Amino acid sequence: MTAAESQATPAAPPAATGAVLCEDGLARPPWAATDPLLRAYYDTEWGMPVRDEQGMFERISLEAFQAGLSWATILRKRPAFRTAFHRFAPDTVAAYTEDDVERLMADAGIVRNEKKIRATITNARATVALRREGGLAAFVWSFQPEETPEPRTVADIPTRSAESVALSKALRAKGFAFTGPTTMFALMEATGIVDTHLVDSHRRGSSGVWPKA
């Protein structure tokens, strides 16, 4: 989920394009201003560094499932996704068979999209193969840019970058699927590789990767 996409979540009035001062005295983007689940995710998880293989594989998987849907939908289904995909353990998912595809397609708790399910299995196998080159997390982080955006409003937040285009191309060359440039920019935002917190947000600079603007 890109920050710009998440801002489209009906969690705040459409006119609210800058940071919103919430009732607890903290400033957040519109998408994290009202919904308790999205607020908790924003305050504790979104934009924090993910440097382990399993965590990065889970994020890539969920970003792929989010395509065409709201992030709130995926977040609410995340516990079911974790159960259905064995907590996104790459070795386990890489060994899935057609029986597992049928099992997942019958699971009402997740998004039952066969192409995305099969892509997740494909990506698990590609993740295992990437261990020969230092691993998935290190590979994704190698595309960290030299600078990060400093958005003051939602309109200032990009949906892709030269680095996300390059990452998309590189992952596809390694056998990954559903890793388009916009999806990869969303991944980079969610895992701290770029910081697109609004400048006035209380979370700006909280990852420790980028200084507060």
Automatic annotation (TrEMBL):
<dbReference type="InterPro" id="IPR011257">
    <property type="entry name" value="DNA_glycosylase"/>
</dbReference>
<feature type="binding site">
    <location>
        <position position="197"/>
    </location>
    <ligand>
        <name>Zn(2+)</name>
    </ligand>
</feature>
<protein>
    <submittedName>
        <fullName>3-methyladenine DNA glycosylase</fullName>
    </submittedName>
</protein>
<dbReference type="InterPro" id="IPR005019">
    <property type="entry name" value="Adenine_glyco"/>
</dbReference>
<keyword id="KW-0479">Metal-binding</keyword>
<dbReference type="GO" id="GO:0006284">
    <property type="term" value="P:base-excision repair"/>
</dbReference>
<dbReference type="InterPro" id="IPR052891">
    <property type="entry name" value="DNA-3mA_glycosylase"/>
</dbReference>
<keyword id="KW-0862">Zinc</keyword>
<dbReference type="Pfam" id="PF03352">
    <property type="entry name" value="Adenine_glyco"/>
</dbReference>
<dbReference type="GO" id="GO:0046872">
    <property type="term" value="F:metal ion binding"/>
</dbReference>
<dbReference type="GO" id="GO:0008725">
    <property type="term" value="F:DNA-3-methyladenine glycosylase activity"/>
</dbReference>
